[in-house]
Specification:
Layout lengths: L1 E7 L6 H12 L5 E7 L7 H6 L3 E4 L4 H10 L4 E5 L6 H16 L3 E6 L6 H6 L2 E4 L2 H11 L7 E3 L6 H6 L4 H11 L6 E6 L10 H11 L4 E6 L3 H4 L11 E4 L5 H9 L3 E3 L10 H8 L4 E3 L16 H4 L7 E2 L3 H13 L1 H18 L2 H13 L12 H7 L5 H5 L2 H12 L8
Parallel strand pairs: 1-2, 1-4, 2-3, 4-5, 5-6, 6-7, 8-9, 8-11, 9-10, 11-12, 12-13
């Protein structure tokens, strides 16, 4: 059996950490000894990852601790989720680590949640996988690397077997709603994401305000919305219509959140490199409405757009940018049971066909042992991407974002003004 080390920089609540956890769980124990590591620090997901590993450690950013573990456990393959390419100090550490692996015959494959580029790092990798076709396309379009054969894609996995076991009864759903302050007959519109202000957008509050003006009885159910976002709720006159649930690593609580919802409105200003929340919502039969955040258009933000890859507009969900049209789509789903059920069924089918954990782990295993293996799925061309990417005017791109930018810079910079 081959000793393989699954590495994530931190072991918090994001989709990258969840992917690390799922691969640790599903890698074939007849082929691999599975070890795991939080290179910089642990976090809320650490115990779950450790539970699925033969060996586990936190390196605290110390290369020597890392090297010692590699040698002691005779690690042959490292699968790293998101190598650091931003901080110059950490880039230097990454290059040092990769050179050590190269010199000691240790194979390194990276799964990249973000299509960033650092030539010296990429040269030292055996293979680099992006978490969607769209993320891979953005990388190739933006950087045009010389050795394109080194790059491939592998979707983030959905632990469908676990989610199946987390399905709850109608009675349980009603109890969850009651505990959250939601009436039985209220339309529940959900948005789940990590507590990162850049990933949220007041667009969803604008949609809520439109629904209110149309006489729709609803609740906006958020999980992990940041304080900067929640502080805007009163301005939109939605204080009585918003519920914000706390961060949690409890899979059952997250599953209950989806199942207590009617529609998932996963809009944001940055878009998705994959979209774990979208895929999990679809598994539970919840129609998903997203916005397009075309990465080829210049904006104040560096954006991704894999949500339009997961959501096939009008088939397993909806891609809508205009706020009035988003509200109309939500109302139509709420009032047309046949449409709702068709979208829900197609969404679940697409998750099982494309993102099942066992299926994707089998593909990962082939990448781990071979440079020549290519994902058995057509790559996404820029032409095809443009065909499925809804048009955006500059107004669509910037409305709602200028306020966010101003708020962000005041929060990060203005608050420190005058300090030495």
């Amino acid at each position: 059996m081959i000793p393989v080390l699954e590495v994530c920089n931190k072991l918090g609540l994001g989709g990258t950490e969840k992917t690390t956890q799922i691969f640790c769980k599903y890698l074939d124990r007849n082929k691999f000894y599975v070890h795991s590591c939080g290179f910089f620090e642990g976090g809320a997901r650490e115990k779950l990852i450790e539970k699925s590993s033969s060996g586990h450690f936190i390196a605290k950013g110390n290369p020597e601790v890392f090297y010692n573990y590699l040698a002691k456990n005779d690690i042959k393959i490292i699968h790293w989720h998101g190598l650091e390419r931003v901080s110059s100090k950490e880039v230097s550490t990454t290059i040092q680590l990769l050179k050590h692996c190269k010199n000691n015959g240790i194979r390194v494959i990276e799964t990249s949640p973000f299509p960033t580029h650092q030539q010296e790092i990429d040269n030292l990798l055996d293979k680099r996988l992006f978490v969607s076709k769209t993320a891979l396309l953005k990388f190739l379009w933006k950087y045009n690397p010389s050795n394109k054969l080194k790059y491939d894609f592998l979707y983030n996995p959905v632990d469908d077997a676990l989610l199946k076991n987390l399905e709850i009864t109608k009675t349980d759903i009603l109890q969850f709603k009651k505990s959250a302050g939601i009436a039985e007959n209220e339309l529940v519109i959900c948005r789940i994401g990590r507590k990162d202000w850049w990933r949220w957008d007041t667009q969803i509050l604008t949609v809520g305000k439109i629904l209110l003006s149309k006489g729709i009885r609803f609740k906006l159910l958020f999980r992990s919305a940041p304080s900067e976002f929640i502080s805007k709720v009163k301005e939109y006159g939605l204080s009585s219509f918003v519920i914000n649930l706390k961060d949690t690593s409890d899979e059952l609580e997250i599953a209950k959140t989806y199942q207590a919802s009617n529609i998932v409105l996963q809009v944001g200003r940055l878009g998705e490199t994959f979209g774990c929340a979208i895929a999990e919502a679809m598994f539970f039969g919840k129609p998903v409405v997203v916005n397009s955040t075309d990465f080829t258009k210049f904006t104040l933000f560096d954006r991704n757009n894999a949500q339009i890859e997961l959501v096939n507009n009008g088939v397993n969900g909806f891609v809508v940018n205009n706020n009035e049209k988003i509200a109309d789509t939500v109302i139509k789903l709420a009032q047309d049971a046949k449409l709702y059920n068709n979208i829900a069924c197609c969404g679940k089918e697409s998750v099982l066909n494309n993102f099942s954990a066992k299926k994707l782990t089998t593909i990962l295993e082939r990448h781990l042992v071979s440079n020549n293996y290519k994902t058995e799925n057509n790559f996404l061309s820029l032409k095809k991407y443009k065909e499925v990417c809804p048009n955006e005017s500059l107004k669509d791109v910037f409305v709602g974002n200028c306020e966010a930018v101003s708020s962000y810079f005041w929060h990060k910079v203005g608050a420190n003004r005058g300090k030495s």
